[in-house]
Structures
1.
Amino acid sequence: MIKLGLNNEAGIYIHIPFCKQACNYCNFHFSTSLSYRERMVTCLIKELEIQKDFLKGKLIRSIYFGGGTPSVLNKEEVALILATIYQFYTIKLDVEITLEANPDDIDNDVLSAWYNGGVNRLSVGIQSIHDEELIWMNRAHSHIESVKTMEAIQSSLFSNYSLDLIFGSSLSSESRWMEGLQWVIAQNPNHISCYNLTVEPGTALFHQVKSGKSTSPDMGLSEKLFKTTHEFLTDHGYDHYEISSYGKPGFESVHNTGYWFNIPYLGIGPGAHSYKNGNRYWNITNNASYMTDIQKGEVPLTKEVLGIHDQFNEALMLGFRTKWGVAKTSVESFESKGIRYDKKSLKSWIEEGYIIDGKTHFILSMKGTLIADKISASLFAEE
Ligand code: SF4
C-alpha cells in the first residue's frame, strides 16, 4: 500500500554536487573537484537554516540525499546535515531517510555510521554487473566492488535498500541484461530501479555518438528489455509502480511518490528544485555562485508560478508515469476551471489499447508506457 501521507506532509531533498568521475551518460549537476566539499557542506547547512520556514507547519515524511554522489561525503558530514534538519524541521517518526551511494564508497564502518545517524534506506548505483559495461559508462566502480558492497550491506542493520540498473548501453544484450537482473534479485532488495539509457545533449556520450565513437541505444532492444524486465520482476514479486521503479509491496519510494502526488518539498543545494502551493523554485546550478550567495545569507533561487495549463500538463505527465494513472476527478476539476484538451485523441488512445479507461483513473497499458511522453504531449491543454 502506498504511503501517500496527509495534507500537512512534505519532503526534503539535499543535492550533493560532487562525483569522483563523470559517467558518460550523465547530465545531472555535479563537479569532479572535491576540494571545496567542506565549504559546500557548510553552505548546505546554512541553507537549511535560512529556508526553515519554507515548510512551516509541515511534517517531514522523507529526506533524500541525492546528487551527484552523496556517499563522497564523510560520515560526520552526513550526520551534521541530518542533525541540522532535525534542529529546524518537524520530522515524522517513521520518516524515510534515503542516501544514494556508489559501491566504491561503501564499507562496514560507513554503513554503521549512516545507520546510527538516522539513514534508513540506501539507493545503490550498481548500474551493471559487467565490467566492460561499467568501463564503457565510465563508472568509478567495478563489479567486484558491487559484490563486496552487497556483502557489507547484508551484514549491516540496513534492511531497506534499492539497487539501480541501466539498460540500453552499446554493450547491452538480452543475455547480459538477464544476468544483471538475476544477480540483483539474488541480493533481495526491497526496491529496484531500471533506467533506460538515453543520450542527453552535453554529455560525454552525446559527443561519442556524434563523433561515431559510440552508437546510439538500439530502441528495439531497449523496448524488448523494458518488457522483459517488467515480466521478470513482476514474476518475482516486485510491483512495477512507475516507469523505472519496482518495489516489493509497501516499499515504494516515499520520497519519489511525493513528487508524483504533488506533495511539497524543499530542495537544498546547487541546482536543487522545490515545490509548494503550485509554485516551483530552483537554486542556481553553479557551485561557486551558490556558495557565495548562501554565505551572504541569500538563497539564489528562481521562482515559477505554474499556470492552470502547466498544472494540467504536469498532472498528465506525472500521473501517466505511474501505475495509478490520472484520476478522472482531477481531469474533471481542471475542465471545470476552463481547461480544454484533445478528447478525440484520448478516445483513440483508449480504442487502440494504449490507455486503459478504468473506473476512476486513466492508466497507461504496457504498450502505452513505452510512449508515455508522446501520449501525455498529445493531450496537453489547448491554450
Ligand atoms: S555518479 Fe551519478 S551523478 Fe555522478 S556522474 Fe555518475 S550517474 Fe552522474
2.
Amino acid sequence: MEGQLKATKFCTNCGAEIDAKAEICPKCGVKQPSSNSPAKNPGLAAVLSFLFTGLGQIYNGQIGKGIIFIVMYSISIALMFVVVGFVTTPILWIWGMVDAYKTAERINSGQLKVGPSNKNANI
Ligand SMILES: [Zn+2]
C-alpha cells in the first residue's frame, strides 16, 4: 500500500524526525523555523489569473513567469488583428488560470519552492 508516506523534516534543535508541517518539535518543544514557503491559496491564484493573466503566477512568487505570461498575452491580443489572437488569447488565459492553481497546490504540498530565497531561478 502506497500513500502512507508522510512528509517529514528534522528538528533544527535535537534532530528528531518530525512532521513536515510541525511548527514545534514534539520531542524538545523548540519552535521550528518556517522552511516552507507561506501557504498559497490555489483558488485565489486562479481568480487573480482570471482577472489578469500572469497575476496568479506573480501571487505564487513566480514573478518572471508572470511577466512572461503578461508579455505572451499582450502579443496574443495584438495577434487578434490577424485573427490568430482569437485562438491564442483564450488558450493563454485558461492556461494561466490552470497553471496558477496547480502551482499554488504544488507550493503548498512542498513539491515546488518559490520565493525570495531563490529569486534568480525565477527570472
Ligand atoms: Zn527537537
